[in-house]
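Appendix B.2, paired examples.
Example (i):
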Amino acid sequence: MDSTVLTVKAKYMGPSKKGPAMPGILTMSETRFKWVPADASVSGPLDVEFSVIKAHFFSKGKKALLNLSKGADAKAEGFVFEYDDFKDRDACRDHVAKILGKQNSAGGGVPAAATAGQAAKPNVPMTPGAQSDQFDLAEMERRLKLLQTDSELQKLHSQLVMGQVLSEAEFWSARKHMLDEDPTRGPKQKTGLKTAMLADVRPLTDGRTNKVTFNLTPEIIHQIFTEKPAVHRAFLLNVPTKMSDVDFWTKYCRAEYLYRTKNQAAAAAEAADDEDLAVFTAEDDIIQSEARRKIRKVDPSLDMAADVGDDYTHLPGHGIYRDGTKEDVEYNTGAKVRSIMNDINRHAAVVLEGRPLDGLSGAEDTATVAHALALAQQAQAVSEKAEDAEQKRLERLRSMTVNEDLMGPQEAPHVPLCIQDPRKYFDSQAAGVAGDAGPAAPTSSDPAEALDFFHEQMAAWKKNGLQDSSFMAPAVALKVMTDLTREISGTKFTLGRTAEKNVLDSLPKPVKDDLLQQSAVVHELLRHFWVCYPLTSKILLEKANRLKEAMSQIYTRLQNTKESASAELRHQISQLVQPMFQALDAAFTHYEEDTQRRATKTAQKQAPGQVNGSNVPKLVAV
């Protein structure tokens, strides 16, 4: 079954652009295109094979029109479509051009495309340098964006492609990785949570009706679910089975209002009467369990719990001012222990961890956000359970409590020696010792015997001299020593104070930029030139000829650059262009040898007397 390549909205105007525009859906595949009207009572659907389409034409005016013609002329009968924007029209145009291009290569010269008002000319020869490059609109946009961001690549493209040395396909064939690395195609960066705390969301108070209004946006609700897991759990359990969404947030805002007013007695009384409200005033057990789980992952040697009593908040004159009033740090037994420090720490932890959901926080449906957040937290909990946290904690504690002063000396690592044939090993060692020349060394520790051995060695050296070839001549040794001393003494005072000499950086910026551009062109031409070989087709031969002419021009340009340079820069420029000259000379030599070899083969085929024919001499009897 033929798969659909693209689907767009298009208005069918009939065989000419003067007909009424009927909206519908246009789908195209590799072999056919279909159009289904939005209103079946207006017109019937279309199902046409591309084999009946001979050419296509598109408009350049205000309307995005595409004419799929059955003939080579724009006035021939066809199918005219009008698109809402030019992007959809261009995508369909490129797809049709690709299909017609395949038909042309299989069946002969049939026109592929022309602008409206122009008749396509059949059987137009196409040179390899100007061959048609079929690519979609998205790839063309990536190419243009890459050229706009890379000025050096833009110059190279302008010189080679616009100069008709290379085609678009040849130029981009080796740069597909640059198009794939386009950062705009990758996943976008996720938006994190705002640093603003929930304390900054202040309620609106109406003095006439004594009514307090909280404005909870989807962003704030998502932040509440993330920072207060108990509220998130209560929402999943109670909404919509026990209460509505509005009733739930009304109770939550009521609990927050009592907390802001520091009315603990009223909060305790209402929590006793309403069990649903008690969820918001009670201590969050999920946060406590999460804190204990995180503490087990940190360095066990850093016990923060030991410093809990090292504070002065319980002394008179200490406290935290919030909303114009001092934060009360004394709570009744069993009451909710919550302060501004807890809120700041919890909010900071949530912001640093990042947004667990991306794209759902702005949803209007609160239940969707709540359930999606629950699934994300469940997946995270499963992955954390898979890790052996307790075992890792014990290993980390063991490594942190190791005292090197109380540890014994560690043995140096060694490789055990394994001798498979001891007799062969020791015999070879004894043979090496027995082969030494000169007097045998003393085996005892007698000083007189060692002194006699030393005298014998000195007498042998005075008589025979030092005949070992490994010793260097005194004059050569002195010269090497002098050179090393001079080099080391010079490096001692210049190392770290002067940068390494770079010939390219010593040139003026215009000359440097010109040489870099010419080097890039030479590299590109040589790469395409060597890819052409062996010349197995006429297209490769014509491409090699074009590249050879372009390399000749750049060779002349390099020579002019070197000759026109000033006297103080000519030597540096010669050093830089010399490798380019060598690479180009190698390419020219290969080109000439290959041309001569092909000419020799052609001459041998055309030489008389080599094959049967009219030029073969006949033997005549005398």
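Example (ii):
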Amino acid sequence: MDALMARFSQQTEHDLRAAGWEPGRRVDTTAWRNQLEATGEVHMHAAAEGFLGEFGGLKVKISGPGVSSAREPFEFNPGDLHGEEGRFAGWGARLGKSLFPIGELDGGRFFLGISELGEILLVETWVATFGIGDAALENLILGVKPDELA
């Protein structure tokens, strides 16, 4: 495939494939939707459903220096964030975004969420953005420091 037509950089595609991703991968998101929507605090919007349908369940085991921060392992298992729905609802309200939990960064030190526009965010006692869509995955995997929002 022509390098200009590639969806991801070689490094990102390698790390995603090592975690079990492949083009066309699909997983059922129903259990995550039911578990996290049960509180009424978060809603699995189309961006979350699409993202988790492709990347849900992946555990990306990376480490070492990155572009502007360390490459930290992460896992896209929103069920691990059950009990944190209020944090996502609160930050979403503050930022004017609908945030849905998608996983954890650095062994649970930070949480990851996705907005209705496909923006991937680090969520803790502060919030930062990795960007939107595939570019956000690139930044997450290559160790690009997210931009702090609040």
